[in-house]
UniProtKB/TrEMBL annotation:
<dbReference type="GO" id="GO:0046872">
    <property type="term" value="F:metal ion binding"/>
</dbReference>
<dbReference type="InterPro" id="IPR050669">
    <property type="entry name" value="Hemerythrin"/>
</dbReference>
<protein>
    <submittedName>
        <fullName>Bacteriohemerythrin</fullName>
    </submittedName>
</protein>
<comment type="similarity">
    <text>Belongs to the hemerythrin family.</text>
</comment>
<dbReference type="InterPro" id="IPR012312">
    <property type="entry name" value="Hemerythrin-like"/>
</dbReference>
<dbReference type="InterPro" id="IPR012827">
    <property type="entry name" value="Hemerythrin_metal-bd"/>
</dbReference>
<feature type="domain" description="Hemerythrin-like">
    <location>
        <begin position="13"/>
        <end position="126"/>
    </location>
</feature>
<keyword id="KW-0408">Iron</keyword>
<dbReference type="InterPro" id="IPR035938">
    <property type="entry name" value="Hemerythrin-like_sf"/>
</dbReference>
<dbReference type="Pfam" id="PF01814">
    <property type="entry name" value="Hemerythrin"/>
</dbReference>
<dbReference type="InterPro" id="IPR016131">
    <property type="entry name" value="Haemerythrin_Fe_BS"/>
</dbReference>
<keyword id="KW-0479">Metal-binding</keyword>
Length: 141
């Protein structure tokens, strides 16, 4: 069973952003599965490393698109990203140092995605809609 289920309420209406968010959800689900199956040592560190790297990539792409869209709260959103990035990197360092995170890690990641997508990212959605008209492929892939 999925730990964090993607559904349409998370959609920003911009395929490239939704694609990134789905990848983040998938990585969190992989971490959950590793905890459930007891594959901590061989799975958690590489998946967490990928999550940290992809978070950096996604935040940079999202900020670039917000700038192109003329999002007026870009500076504030960048600060939210910096805070989240620091928190994820601190967790990564703790795990690499041998700290067992388990439920604490999963709860943080789940709360982060829910809060960030549903509240923080939702605020720029109208600006992205103007930048990326519906019905066009903006996957960036």
């Amino acid at each position: 069973m999925s730990f964090f289920s993607w559904n349409d309420k998370f959609s920003m209406g911009v395929e490239v952003i939704d694609h990134d968010h789905r990848i983040l959800v998938d990585l969190i689900d992989q971490l959950h599965e590793a905890f459930v199956n007891g594959n901590l040592d061989e799975t958690v560190t590489p998946v967490l490393d990928t999550l940290v790297d992809y978070t950096r990539f996604h935040f940079a792409r999202e900020e670039e698109l917000m700038a192109k869209a003329g999002y007026p709260a870009l500076t504030q959103h960048q600060e939210v990203h910096r805070t989240l990035r620091r928190q994820v990197e601190e967790i990564q360092e703790r795990v690499q140092g041998g700290t067992k995170m388990g439920n604490e890690l999963l709860a943080f990641l789940q709360d982060w995605l829910y809060f960030h997508i549903l509240e923080q990212d939702r605020a720029y959605s109208p600006y992205m809609a103007a930048l990326f008209p519906a019905g066009q492929d903006h996957s960036g892939r």
